[in-house]
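Input chain follows. Return structure tokens only.
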Amino acid sequence: MTETLLQIDGLQTYYGKIHALKGISLTVRQGQIVTLLGANGAGKSTTLRTISGLIRATEGRITFQGQDITAAPPHAIVRMGLIHAPEGRRIFKGMTVSENLDLGGFVDHKRTDLLAERRKYVFELFPRLYDRRNQDSGLLSGGEQQMLAIGRALMTDPKLMLLDEPSMGLAPFLVQAIMAIIRHLNERGTTILLVEQNAKVALKLAHYGYVLETGRIVIEGDAARLRQDESIVKAYLGGGSHEANAKD
């Protein structure tokens, strides 16, 4: 069996008095795309933020590459190769595309040769970013900003990428382009935990899926099986519709 890269056991997380995650457990194996699905407010983004250390779990355990990272600070988690590309892109406006990429590689800032190699790969993957490398990132289109968010994450050469709603607000043809890039990254060896509003697209891309409902995992299984089960799609995934403004 493929090696476990990320293991979550009994995770409980609160936002103030709101009990956001209620004991979830999940596994991401090396080389997989695992998708986390559910309606708006189910706890998907909260899960990613807790994994990356932006929110502290009140109970439970998060293990990455066999090491307990439950209480690790975000910068230490990044150094281990676990990278979070958040919902809404969160690029640094007022800075150029190249400067955003350089910030993404801060953990290896002394390895200029390594960063140059990674930047070259990002520009090969996203030629439009190369064309706009000296442009203020705030002037990029939504699709270009998403490319930059993924490219910035790649500057650390991640072992595991947490991708939060990469298709949000994008035109259908751009959604297909972004999903093709995600597949390419996975085929190149990057493991991915994907939160995605377009359930049918996500399940077509993923190897395994989890469905969250009000902070609990209610269903899990091979992505192909979940995709083919119409009762699951209708009950938990909104029929697979693309909710452009959905937030978690």
